[in-house]
Prior knowledge:
- The structure is a single chain.
- The chain has one domain (4-61).
- The radius of gyration is 15 Å and the shape is elongated.
- It has 65 residues and is of the alpha+beta class.
- The protein has helices at residues 10-15, 17-29, 41-61; strands spanning 4-7, 35-38.
Amino acid sequence: MKHYLIIDEQYTWWDCGRSYLCRVVDMLHMRYVDEVLFGHEVVEKLPEIVKAWVKIVRRRANLPR
């Protein structure tokens, strides 16, 4: 199981960024989160992550690729 944190709100990141950055680093160090996606990275990277999920599910279920 993997945990993703998606930060995609301008107010949250740009106005409250410093305190959130500390929390993000803490969550990574404590392994509460495996990966953090920021802004447009959500649009770019999320499809790749979902493809990896599909491969895992197909492998577990022995479904054709």
